[in-house]
């Protein structure tokens, strides 16, 4: 079955899905994105992703290509056309294709923003990695200073994944001033003496949609949550650790820079939060 992709108003087979070489996403990484998970053919936390997209667009003075209601319809149409039961929908908005390459933003009245969405079919709920746990390395955080905006400039996170791969590991946690900011494509957490610790929200990290939901569920379950920066040394000495993201939900981390956490197996807090997150998200899926 050929994948059907949405490009600027049209649903086309993937080999016919094209954007201009002058698209500012291609030339300047002048674009933002969202990834929304799909379970049993339904979208998880669409409202959260739509809200963050609106914020990313507004921080960059970029026009929304369609309304958020229309965006939901496009997501649903892609699920139907691709018969998607489980996986993700990737969405990207760029500042469109100007007539030439120019650093200055084009007039949005003359150059409309560009919108592309595609599906990624994948088994995400029943994950072998969730049973085994991830091994991570730490690397210096060399990204720009507005990590709260979900832009498509993902070169450094890609390099981080390659550094992790070269070290025989699964991911990298990024460090700034000895403190962990986040994973290459996820938010980072440690658990110490039953307390869940994760970095507070600021421009230094992406405000994860999964993070917001998981912290809400943790508090509802009477778990203690502390939102503050933690050092990499504190992380290596933690009882357990985990990451969150839309496509991995809650995923345990069992090793940091070669040091095993606790008994080196996925911890009970991460396992419980993963279960709660999946149960609760399924209930509100659209
Ligand atoms: N932090 C970074 C740098 C990310 O790229 C992502 C997801 O792509 C996240 C955190 C997790 O965000 P969310 O839970 O909204 O997927």
Automatic annotation (TrEMBL):
Pathway: Amino-acid biosynthesis; L-isoleucine biosynthesis; L-isoleucine from 2-oxobutanoate: step 4/4; Amino-acid biosynthesis; L-valine biosynthesis; L-valine from pyruvate: step 4/4; Amino-acid biosynthesis; L-leucine biosynthesis; L-leucine from 3-methyl-2-oxobutanoate: step 4/4. It comes from the Bacteria. It is an enzyme of class 2 (transferase). CDD domains: D-AAT_like (cd01558). GO terms for molecular function: L-isoleucine-2-oxoglutarate transaminase activity; L-leucine-2-oxoglutarate transaminase activity; L-valine-2-oxoglutarate transaminase activity. InterPro entries: Aminotrans_IV (IPR001544), Aminotrans_IV_CS (IPR018300), Aminotransferase-like (IPR036038), BCAT-like_C (IPR043132), BCAT-like_N (IPR043131), Class-IV_PLP-Dep_Aminotrnsfr (IPR050571). Gene3D superfamilies: 3.30.470.10, D-amino Acid Aminotransferase, subunit A, domain 2 (3.20.10.10). Its cofactor is pyridoxal 5'-phosphate. It holds the Pfam family Aminotran_4. Keywords: Amino-acid biosynthesis, Aminotransferase, Branched-chain amino acid biosynthesis, Pyridoxal phosphate, Transferase. Its EC number is 2.6.1.42. One of its GO terms (biological process) is amino acid biosynthetic process. GO terms for cellular component: cytosol. It catalyses: L-leucine + 2-oxoglutarate = 4-methyl-2-oxopentanoate + L-glutamate; L-isoleucine + 2-oxoglutarate = (S)-3-methyl-2-oxopentanoate + L-glutamate; L-valine + 2-oxoglutarate = 3-methyl-2-oxobutanoate + L-glutamate. Belongs to the class-IV pyridoxal-phosphate-dependent aminotransferase family. NCBIfam families: PRK06680.1. Acts on leucine, isoleucine and valine. This is Probable branched-chain-amino-acid aminotransferase. It comes from Boseongicola aestuarii.
């Amino acid at each position: 079955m050929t994948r059907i992709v949405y490009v600027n108003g049209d649903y086309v087979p993937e080999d016919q899905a094209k954007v201009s070489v002058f698209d500012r996403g291609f030339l300047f990484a002048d674009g933002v994105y969202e990834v929304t998970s799909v379970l049993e053919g339904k979208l998880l936390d669409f409202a959260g992703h739509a809200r963050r997209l609106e914020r990313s667009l507004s921080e960059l003075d970029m026009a929304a290509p369609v309304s958020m209601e229309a965006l939901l319809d496009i997501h649903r149409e892609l699920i139907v056309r691709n018969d998607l039961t489980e996986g993700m929908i990737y969405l990207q908005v760029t500042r469109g294709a100007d007539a030439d390459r120019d650093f200055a933003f084009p007039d949005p009245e003359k150059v409309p923003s560009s919108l592309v969405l595609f599906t990624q079919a994948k088994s995400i709920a029943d994950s072998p990695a969730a049973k085994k746990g991830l091994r991570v390395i730490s690397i210096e955080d060399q990204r720009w200073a507005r990590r709260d905006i979900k832009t498509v400039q993902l070169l450094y996170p890609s390099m981080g994944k390659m550094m992790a791969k070269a070290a025989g590991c699964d991911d990298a946690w990024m460090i700034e001033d000895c403190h962990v900011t986040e994973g290459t494509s996820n938010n980072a957490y440690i658990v110490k003496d039953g307390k869940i610790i994760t970095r507070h929200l600021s421009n230094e990290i992406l405000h994860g949609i999964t993070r917001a939901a998981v912290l809400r569920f943790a508090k509802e379950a009477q778990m203690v949550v502390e939102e503050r920066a933690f050092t990499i040394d504190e992380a290596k000495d933690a009882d357990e650790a985990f990451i969150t993201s839309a496509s991995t939900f809650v995923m345990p981390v069992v090793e940091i820079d070669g040091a095993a956490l606790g008994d080196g197996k996925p911890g009970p807090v991460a396992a419980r939060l993963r279960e709660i997150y999946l149960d609760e998200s399924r209930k509100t899926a659209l």
